[in-house]
Design goal:
This protein is α/β, with parallel strands linked by helices and 292 residues long. It has a six-stranded mixed sheet, sandwiched between helices. β4 and β5 form a beta hairpin. The chain starts with 19 loop residues before the first helix and ends with a helix.
Length: 292
Amino acid sequence: MMNYSAGEAAIPAAPEPTTTATAERTTQTRAETAEGSTATAAIAAHDLTVVRGDRTVLRGLDFTVPAGRITGLLGPSGCGKSTLMRAVVGTQAQVGGTLQVLGRPAGDPTLRSRIGYVTQAPSVYDDLTVRQNLDYFAAVLLPGRARRQERRAVVDRAVDDVDLASHADSLAGRLSGGQRSRVSLAVALLGTPELLVLDEPTVGLDPVLRRDLWNLFHQIAADRGTTLLVSSHVMDEAERCHRLLLMREGEILADDTPEALRRRNDTPTVEEAFLRLVDAAAARAAHEEPRP
């Protein structure tokens, strides 16, 4: 995983303790309230297109990601999820269309301190301990001796956020893959970002760790008002999101809540709704294909 965060970030006062159930109810209430109103968009795309060589990876996408909520970006491997995320954080080349992130054009230098980006491959220093890794990145975010206590508080909070206090003094190279992924997430959380972009953060994790990580996502959204864009190809994780973008072959098949998707497609699960949408899209494509 790579972390996209630089510059200074103010450290807010610690929020009141919130249980996981309360956090999920709070963020769900926000989601339901926003359904009938025009919510502030953390991300807004119009005709977003990415062409790589002779292949169109993203095909004129139009979508918004509401602020302060968890939006799931779901679809099979190779459908364009990672490309879309790189476009959002400003690291993707050859991007066409319009893409606004936190009110600024994607890639604007002022966004660097406002976005936490975690890619699929852990990017931590194996020869440093968990705490040393976080100390290093905290020094980049909050430089200067005068901010030493602030850095310490930020690192302690990040370690607790990802539940690695018992491994804080362990070398990163000796951790499991899931633990290393959590270290990368902790680095992304150091700057208290307004937007977290997480590319398949639960890949390779056991069910307990996956559950705990999703509980953390809900607490971050509820307690800090952070917007989360989380990609996955595991459809059961869709039920944990407030809103979903379902992708296939560079296109968005649906942009809605899990409940609305199930209801509209008359299916008991989001996975079955997704498969029904895929079949419908394939049928339309076959019908529109020009005949010889």
